[in-house]
């Protein structure tokens, strides 16, 4: 059980930093380091250098507008980041070691709404994914490596919902198939999935995004993808409930029954939302006439997304 690193992005802003002004770095810290710890350490270090009244820590992870900063102050922005891998990379990065070695790309997410607030209702919640590339791969001889490239991906509210549901489904699958089984973890994930309905829970997500077919054809694919995510989610909930039933003792049978009742209520409420297909996505393609010898055949293909 090796201790790998925890990573933070640190940005420096202000002429007092000299060459470091507007430079960004990824810091590698021991795996148990919290954001407050590195923030306190850097604040103390640069506070002694420039004066505590001159140094200011930017508390959010939003893009920094230099025009709004005081030219007589020095600013640092610290953000927790995670190693980022493309889907094809994950095929080769199987073990825990693979996922913590030769790291050059890191990601952090910033929630936002179009009116400037960080958090809003489901239908107005966007997310900005920022992917950083460093000049050298970690682990490296230095624990601070400069960022050489930055890429931003903006997720629309329905894309945020898709990502959240995929994450919930993955958590359920992991807790269900964990070996050895961890009943507490399984019940915690189940409770968050089928427990008493809470704001922005799975049912509310479905009601917001799946209650009506979108008028914009560009959203058809996202609508269909979210619908399929919910189908997978309900199947994983059923698997998790079955697994939990095999793990519990007599003292938890009533709790199991309550979870099952909640699941059936959730499934019943979701059924009309996830069974409605968008007709435009399932139109038959024009008949294809294929001449072979003395007869022709007709075939219809379904667009399967």
Automatic annotation (TrEMBL):
<dbReference type="Pfam" id="PF20421">
    <property type="entry name" value="DHR-2_Lobe_C"/>
</dbReference>
<feature type="domain" description="DOCKER">
    <location>
        <begin position="1"/>
        <end position="279"/>
    </location>
</feature>
<dbReference type="InterPro" id="IPR026791">
    <property type="entry name" value="DOCK"/>
</dbReference>
<protein>
    <submittedName>
        <fullName>Dedicator of cytokinesis 7</fullName>
    </submittedName>
</protein>
<dbReference type="GO" id="GO:0005085">
    <property type="term" value="F:guanyl-nucleotide exchange factor activity"/>
</dbReference>
<dbReference type="InterPro" id="IPR046770">
    <property type="entry name" value="DOCKER_Lobe_B"/>
</dbReference>
<dbReference type="InterPro" id="IPR027357">
    <property type="entry name" value="DOCKER_dom"/>
</dbReference>
<dbReference type="Pfam" id="PF20422">
    <property type="entry name" value="DHR-2_Lobe_B"/>
</dbReference>
<dbReference type="GO" id="GO:0007264">
    <property type="term" value="P:small GTPase-mediated signal transduction"/>
</dbReference>
<dbReference type="GO" id="GO:0007409">
    <property type="term" value="P:axonogenesis"/>
</dbReference>
<dbReference type="InterPro" id="IPR046773">
    <property type="entry name" value="DOCKER_Lobe_C"/>
</dbReference>
<dbReference type="InterPro" id="IPR043162">
    <property type="entry name" value="DOCK_C_lobe_C"/>
</dbReference>
<comment type="similarity">
    <text>Belongs to the DOCK family.</text>
</comment>
